[in-house]
């Protein structure tokens, strides 16, 4: 049994994947990008 706290997001996410705009990312890449965003804000 799959349980989620955000069931209302399943259909939109599946639809995005079906049309080719879904993305699966690794945690390391995501954290690197978040750090890059905070660096840009601090430089502004």
Structure description:
It is a single chain. By secondary structure, the protein is mainly alpha-helical. It has two helices and no strands. The mean pLDDT is 82. The chain is elongated and about 40 Å long.
Short description:
The chain has helices at residues 10-18, 27-43. It is mainly alpha-helical.
Descriptive key words:
mainly alpha, 2 helices, about 45 residues, elongated
Topology:
Elements lengths: L9 H9 L8 H17 L1
What percent of residues are in strands? under 5%
Approximately how much helix is present in the residues?
55-70%
Question: How does the overall form come out from the CA principal axes?
Answer: elongated
Mean pLDDT: 82
């Amino acid at each position: 049994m799959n349980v989620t706290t955000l069931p209302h997001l399943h259909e939109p996410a599946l639809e995005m994947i079906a049309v080719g705009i879904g993305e699966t990312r690794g945690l390391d890449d995501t954290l690197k990008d978040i750090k890059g965003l905070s660096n840009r804000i601090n430089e502004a």
